[in-house]
Amino acid sequence: MNRHDPEGAIAESAKAYSNWGRWSADDVLGTLNFLDEAKRREGAALVRRGASFSLSQSFDMDGPQNGWRRRTNPVHTMLDTGTDAVLGHQGFPHGIGGADDVISMPLQCSTQWDGLGHIFDHGMAWNGRPAEHVVTSAGDLVTGVEHMAPYVAGRGVLLDVGRFAGGGTGELPDGFAITEEQLTATAQAQGVTVGRGDIVVVRTGQLTRVRRDGWGEYAGGPAPGLSFTTAGWLHRTEIAAIATDTWGFEVRPNEFEASFQPLHQVVIPNMGLLVGELWDPDALAEDCARDGVYEFWLTAAPLPITGAVGSPVNPIAVK
User: Fold this and answer.
1) Which domains does the chain have, with CATH numbers?
2) pLDDT in tens, 259-272
3) How far is 147 from 144, CA to CA, in rounded Å?
4) pTM score, two decimals?
5) Tens-digit pLDDT profile for residues 78-88
6) DSSP conformation letters of 47-62
């Protein structure tokens, strides 16, 4: 990998790991095609204890967003309250009252999926479509995240790289580039396999650290994450999706000079990979470390927001 030539490396990987046309010219699901009915049955069979874990961060005004890329934390506003009910402002009969609320937020401000219309490569969107024909001011007209809503449920696998490569701290330092070898070694140490149709959750420990020390630059700043060199592993394993406890999935600063999210540029528009960010696997990771079981049933459906290029999600892992 020539760190001085991001253009060349991206072009080479995009060509080598492209899934364009693999599931027809009309495909809108990308690697979710690997997550079929048999894989869902396999995932459902993993439920033994019935213990469940939310892998979502909070959606509130105390979140990590600092305005970078114009992303803000959620703004939650009450429309009707208990005060309105008690003071008789609602006008309902026989003593009934209620509360209503509204939230305003960027769709990728907390735990979320990147839709296939989120990233382009030289003006091309997923499956070789011109980006200007896919995402307009009306939204993603072709690969809107609503198409994925019925399908994101199956076998989940936690790769706790923070615990197994963090030198005893359970936390990888910012700028730590996770390699294919470290992903494979973590899976082997945990006694788990990764393969076709899996939803992989990678814990780096960065979220653990910022919860202790403060948000800092968690949203958009330096972070541990996947190395650009993992593109081949992501393609070869035929996983359905991958998510991390970091803002950007891949290592930051990025590994090339003068580059911005080069792995995104390969895996989303070319590979069609579903990518999740800002997930919270900490409670699940503690349970996995106790019982030694790192596979589970995982359901993580995006909200069916028509034309959206990303979606909030509350992933639920059940063991």
Assistant:
1) 6-69+106-318 (3.50.30.50), 75-103 (no CATH)
2) 999 999 999 999 99
3) 6
4) 0.97
5) 999 999 999 99
6) -SS--EEE-B---STT
